[in-house]
Specification:
Layout (H helix, E strand, L loop, with lengths): L1 E5 L8 H15 L3 E3 L16 H25 L4 E4 L5 H11 L3 E5 L3 H8 L1 H9 L2 E4 L2 H9 L6 E3 L20 E5 L8 H14 L4 E5 L10 H13 L3 E5 L3 H10 L2 E3 L14 H8 L3 E5 L4 H4 L5 E4 L4 H13 L12 H16 L6
Parallel strand pairs: 1-2, 1-3, 3-4, 4-5, 5-6, 7-8, 7-10, 8-9, 10-11, 11-12
Helix pairs in contact: 1-13, 3-5, 4-5, 7-8, 7-12
Length: 358
């Protein structure tokens, strides 16, 4: 089976790129042949397109890439399917699907599965016309239904590379808690800081590691300045690690007693899943997230806990309990990208009426 993969990024350092790269790799290993020339320019205007020059820039770039993909089809023979792996490539995928008369699948990763169809009729038509939209979580599917995004939706949760993210019995856990992400409001950094202030009052040796490529320009970055000021004022034992490599991140997961990503949901901003939770679990580490978010799909009983966003007392209670007595995590059934590949192959075969092996 030959598939055209459309994505705005293959950068492993962000959620979209990590998802797309791993799908292409692992579904490809299962027998699907991908063409990935159609990397499209992202919509940069937040809620739809508001400036003509940005619109024209996107159109011209995508016209060029559409021609590139069509030329590949002409050179390599007929393709069986188009897969828009990021929501902002769905418009191009829909156009190509009509041009080439082949099925179109869209992956719905979260926020943009709502904002783009809600604010832009081109994307609304693309989602409604897709042969299948694959949501990364039941939560994202539910939010799409609430916002009346018309689509034929299946759910396939992401996975993790269990060859990289795995426990090491020789590594001793320390009194550290990881927060892996940026300082965006929906990541919940202020919530975890409020809870950790309570933790440090009872357990001052516990440390919060804030992991990620964060601009620590005190004068120029008001988000960082607000967080740094709060940490200083409350006397929180916290450290910004900066950007780390995958190997370094795995080491941090293994040594931490907890991982936390307390996602905050709003109408047009929410966490579609929370891959960080799976990565921590795969390394043998307990993880904490929030209800009313994609975390509900990512966290299972025995490997983590869910709290209501803003419930500082409950969050602090869980952190202290796990710091004092971290549970053993069964990593055997943590979902892998091979599991994801199997689910997508079934969808590919259903919408095309063909077997991958054919």
């Amino acid at each position: 089976m030959k598939v055209i993969a459309l994505t705005s990024t293959l950068d492993m350092n962000n959620g979209w790129g990590c998802q797309a790269s791993n799908m292409i790799r692992h579904i490809g290993e299962a027998g699907v042949e991908y063409a990935t020339a159609g990397i499209v320019s992202p919509v940069r205007t937040g809620f739809g397109i508001s400036r003509l020059d940005i619109l024209l820039n996107r159109i011209m770039k995508n016209v060029k890439r559409t021609r590139e993909v069509i030329s590949i089809c002409n050179a390599d023979g007929r393709f069986d399917l188009i897969h828009s792996m990021t929501e902002n490539s769905a418009d191009m995928g829909h156009a190509l699907s009509q041009k080439l008369h082949i099925p179109h699948v869209i992956t719905a990763n979260g926020t943009y599965a709502i904002t783009l169809p809600a604010r832009n009729p081109v994307f609304r038509e693309a989602f409604a016309g897709a042969d299948r939209v694959v949501s990364i979580s039941e939560y994202t599917k539910k939010r799409m239904a609430e916002e009346r995004v018309e689509a034929d939706v299946d759910v396939v949760n992401p996975g993790v590379d269990k060859k990289k993210f795995c426990p090491d019995p020789n590594v001793e856990k320390t009194d550290t808690v990881l927060f892996v992400g940026n300082l965006k409001r929906r990541k919940g950094i202020r919530f975890i800081l409020e809870a950790f202030a309570e933790v440090n009052r009872k357990k001052p040796e516990a440390k919060l590691l804030i992991v990620g490529n964060i601009n620590r320009d005190y004068k120029g970055n008001h988000e960082y300045r607000a967080v740094a000021d709060y940490i200083s004022k409350q006397g929180i034992n916290a450290e910004f690690t900066g950007k780390v490599s995958v190997d370094e991140l795995v080491g941090l997961y293994r040594r931490a007693k907890l991982n936390v990503l307390p996602s905050k949901s709003e109408r047009y901003y929410f966490e579609g899943f929370g891959l960080i939770h799976l990565e921590a679990n795969a390394c043998g580490t307990f993880t904490v997230g929030t209800y009313d978010s994609g975390n509900e799909d990512a966290i299972t009983d025995g490997r983590g806990a869910l709290v209501n966003y803003g419930d500082v007392a409950d969050m602090a209670r869980i952190l202290l309990a796990v710091l004092d007595n971290p549970p053993e995590i069964d990593v055997a059934d943590v979902r892998s990208w091979n599991d994801v590949a199997a689910d997508y192959i079934e969808i590919y075969e259903n919408v095309t009426g063909k077997r991958v092996a054919d």
